[in-house]
Write a structure and sequence with these properties.
The chain has 312 residues and is an alpha/beta fold. Helices cover 31% and strands 22% of the residues. An eight-stranded mixed β-sheet has the order 6-14-13-8-9-10-11-7. The protein has a six-stranded mixed β-sheet with strand order 2-1-3-4-5-12, sandwiched between helices. Helix 7 links the parallel strand 8 and strand 9. Helix 8 runs parallel beside helix 10. The longest helix has 15 residues.
Length: 312
Amino acid sequence: MVTIKPSKLVKGDLIGIISPAGPAYGEKKTILSQGIQYLENCGYKIKSGNHYLNEYGYLAGSDEQRLQDLHNMFSDKKVKAVFCTRGGYGSGRLLDKIDYDLIKNNPKIIVGYSDITALQLAIFAQTGLVSLSGPMPAIELGKPMDSLTEASLWNALHGHPVHDINLDDPPIKIIKPGRCKGRLIGGCLSIFVNLLGTPFIPNMNNAVLLLEEIGENWYKIDRNLTHLKNAGILKKINGLILGDFVNCSSGNGNSLEFEQILNDLLEQYDIPIVANVPYGHGISKFTMPLGCQIEIDTSTKKIHFLEAAVKQ
């Protein structure tokens, strides 16, 4: 696939704010306001979607309203980046309605993670537009961020060299040694699995798969990884990066430990596998360039980003 890269962000640029998934209700609405203020304090102009504060049950407005905000941001030539307010649920309901030609012809930076995984992977599968799996206004940007999270985000947005991830830094673990290169594809495990069998999953041949999760019992993590195995995904990829698995637990019953699940399911695959990488729903996180080439090399103890996600 030929990839498309948006232009880098420059101070004074216009940033669009949309809610393609869940609503920013309660405390999250205050955090969202603070997150937007943070972007303004950093020197950017803001254009909020017409429906970004809507509440329709567990959705931030109807499908038509959320889709309209998405299309409006990509139609506006002045908007240079689109930040999704939060995850939750709802992005998947938009995928068969999106005007992918509009997005392909007007490439912009897209930032988000969690449920936004569905939107990012579908757009990449349909258009080749890379995106940034990173912090969102109603979650991290509206609170004090740790230095890694903040620096990684702005390095990615500005097209600066992305620092290697040092595999010697705790709590990162090398599960299986090796060296590989490939296109970084992934995000939230449960969202990724739900895209299998649809036109919205990217080509996974020779990819490096990136996965994280929140709030699931370990048997559900096992189920989803088993589904990836049975679907043939694990045979196709060159490497696997596991991020944070936040608030995942045994529930009220007997359970296997995460490392035992990995050993059981991944032992047969001769690919490098690293775990506990700061990415996903944890407090500290790297912003990951989905669709870009990376390298895992456990001999040098590095994950190396081979290209930027934006054009200079």
